[in-house]
Design a protein that fits this description.
Largest sheet of chain A: none
Strand order of the largest sheet of chain B: 6-7-8-3-9-10
Largest sheet of chain B: 6 strands, mixed
Radius of gyration of chain B: 19 Å
CATH topology of chain B: Rossmann fold
Helix content of chain B: 25-40%
Number of helices of chain B: 9
Oligomer: heterodimer
CATH class of the largest domain in chain A: Mainly Alpha
Radius of gyration of chain A: 20 Å
Low-confidence stretches of chain A: none
Number of domains of chain B: 1
Distance between the termini of chain A: 29 Å
Number of helices of chain A: 15
Order of helices and strands of chain B: EEEHEEHEHHHEHEHEEHHEE
Strand content of chain A: under 5%
Shape of chain A: globular
CATH superfamily of the largest domain in chain A: ABC transporter involved in vitamin B12 uptake, BtuC
CATH topology of the largest domain in chain A: ABC transporter involved in vitamin B12 uptake, BtuC
Helix content of chain A: over 70%
Structural class of chain A: mainly alpha
Number of strands of chain A: 0
Distance between the termini of chain B: 44 Å
Number of strands of chain B: 12
């Protein structure tokens, strides 16, 4: 079977790519440590270098992998579920409400008083959006689900704008804007520990949906006739996405385009099957975000270029190129 | 082999009643054509029988109630071929056919030898060997219909329900599909198809159910159901009904309002 062999080769290549980019991400930074010393300091206690590696670079690298993987797998799952190549976690409004939660934490000053207030508020925002989206569009078809998600996202971004509008000082407004742009700088292992359980839960929930998502290739009725309970699939998908995208937004802000572009790039390479696309998109998303974060650090180390800006700058033209290439094939 | 039974079956969508107290028994090996004008409730009846929508009354598969079957159990008894042949992603023909095996595969396992054997048999039967590696999104209408039929056959169920399987196909493909379904019923499977082509229904199905406004207006052999009177009152058409060596012939000749 050529497709099966091609798939194993692709997965091995993607794992290798993630590992190489992780190593690169660990050895790049403002502290003058040689790559060899850097990697050695990570595994052996070696004073200051170990501190830099374990407290600054490792969390950044781990978060890039976890968040990139989250955006990739969620994008793949939502595109498969909605049978729409333009979907990503944004359609459920989870990113927008998580951002709103974070903005509330910054706006009220809680984030300054208590560092974990920001990610925790963002998680609460994500949970609230899921409850509203499920209540509004829970039992009906996919269109209602998207409409509910868009309504919630619009409301959340309107409230975020309101917070900006009413912000007590220009500095608070600037902090909110910078946070919204998405970044992985100055994150600690505490952020990793906070996000990891939610993300792992989300990945597991979504990974369990491979077969029903495959069946959905032939439409909702056919998938149901193959024995899958679509209401349950939708519930697991929304909860899984909320759990991991909520956690991703909570620790890194909004990062766009990864969830949209990665499944697009990989779909032809895995033969179109959702159950294969999910793990491949996890690895692809992790690679893309690691690369984007590396680019942000290498291009302008002093300016603190925001990660969300880089992914959008790289993602949008790339996406345009894909659209041009696949025009004609998409209907 | 299971028989399919509906007792007092009603279906409402919103506050509109689509099916009204349908009673129906379909023994194993039947080849039933479901006919009736647009909006008569054919698709709704098929979806109810396939367990895809909520209904009141009772549907029994063999000696069990349809509602008591788990999703996967039901999918091993009843296969459903949707009217839409839309394929969302460019997956291979073989992967489409293999989807029919999903209800037979325990969680977290690859395809078994039996799964592979069934797929092989179906691919050969429907002459898809040359197409198996092709992208299913790039096939002609007739080829797509064959692939979808193969997917249903791969599910290997006693009961097959197909919603307008012949729609949009040229005569050769239509005849081919009816021949396949007819062959399946000869081997003891129950096949229920909804049809708009009365000529095909007349010639191929062994039993016709004429549906109108959510109720069964006639039920029986084609010549009993396709009477001038029924065609006039339900379809509002006049038709020539004749017979040759191969069976019944029906040609609509005019609208009678």
């Amino acid at each position: 079977m050529t497709i099966a062999r091609g798939y194993s080769a692709l997965m091995i290549a993607l794992v290798a790519l993630v590992l190489v980019l992780m190593a690169a991400s660990l050895v790049v930074g403002p502290a003058t440590i040689t790559p060899f010393e850097a990697l050695r300091a990570l595994f052996r206690s070696d004073g200051a270098a170990t501190l830099v590696m374990r407290e600054i670079r490792l969390p950044r690298t781990l978060l890039a992998v976890m968040i990139g993987g989250t955006l990739g797998i969620c994008g793949a799952a939502l595109q498969s579920f909605l049978r729409n190549p333009l979907a990503d976690s944004g359609v459920l409004g989870i990113g927008a409400t998580a951002a709103l939660g974070a903005v509330v934490a910054i706006y009220t000053g809680l984030a300054a008083a208590f560092p974990l207030a920001l990610p925790l508020f963002a998680l609460v925002g994500a949970i609230l959006s899921v409850l509203v989206v499920l209540a509004l569009g829970g039992s009906a078809g996919t269109t209602t689900l998207i409409l509910a998600g868009i309504a919630v996202a619009s409301l959340a971004s309107a409230l975020t704008s309101l917070a900006l509008n009413l912000s007590p000082s220009p500095y608070a407004a600037l902090e909110i804007v910078f946070w919204l742009l998405g970044s992985l700088s100055d994150r600690s292992m505490l952020h990793v520990q906070l996000a990891a359980p939610f993300m792992i839960l989300g990945w597991l929930l979504i990974a369990a949906l491979g077969r029903p998502l495959d069946a959905l290739t032939l439409g909702h009725d056919t998938a149901a006739s193959l024995g899958f309970r679509m209401s349950r699939v939708r519930l697991l998908l929304v909860l899984g996405t909320a759990s991991c995208v909520g956690a991703a937004t909570a620790v890194a802000g909004s990062i766009s385009f990864v969830g949209l572009v990665v499944p697009h790039m990989l779909r032809p390479l895995v033969g179109g099957k959702a159950s294969r696309l999910l793990p491949a998109s996890w690895l692809g998303g992790a690679s893309l975000l690691l690369a984007a974060d590396l680019a942000a650090r290498l291009v302008s180390p002093a300016k603190d270029l925001k990660l969300g800006v880089v992914t959008a700058l790289v993602g949008a033209p790339f996406f345009l190129a894909l659209v041009l290439k696949s025009r004609g094939r998409l209907t | 082999m299971s028989r399919l039974e509906a007792r007092n079956l009603s279906v409402s969508l919103g506050d509109r009643e689509i099916l009204h107290q349908i009673d129906l028994t379909i023994p194993p090996g039947s080849f039933v054509g479901l006919i009736g004008p647009n909006g008569a409730g054919k698709s709704t009846l098929m979806r109810a029988l396939a367990g895809l929508i909520a209904f009141s009354g009772e549907i029994r598969v063999g000696d069990r109630s349809l509602g008591s079957l788990g999703g996967m159990e039901r999918a091993r008894e009843i296969a459903y071929m949707a009217q839409s042949r839309d394929i969302a992603w460019p997956i291979s023909v073989e992967d489409v056919v293999a989807l029919g095996r999903l209800p037979h595969r325990p969680p977290f396992t690859g395809p078994s030898q039996r799964d592979r054997d069934v797929i092989e048999r179906v691919v050969t039967e429907l002459e898809l060997a040359g197409l198996r590696a092709r992208r299913a999104t790039e096939l002609s209408g007739g080829e797509t219909a064959r692939v979808m039929t193969a997917r249903v056959l791969a599910q290997d169920t006693d009961i097959i329900i197909a919603d307008e399987p012949t729609a949009g196909l040229d005569p050769a493909h239509q005849l081919n599909l009816m021949k396949i379904f007819s062959g399946l019923s000869d081997r003891g499977r129950t096949v229920i198809v909804s049809l708009h082509e009365l000529g095909l229904a007349a010639r191929w199905c062994r039993r016709l159910l004429l549906l109108d406004q959510g109720q069964i207006r006639a039920d029986g052999a084609p010549e009993e159901v396709l009477t001038a009177e029924n065609l006039k009152s339900v379809y509002h058409i006049d038709a020539f009904v004749g017979r040759d060596a191969g069976g019944l012939l029906l040609v609509p000749t005019g609208v009678s309002r």
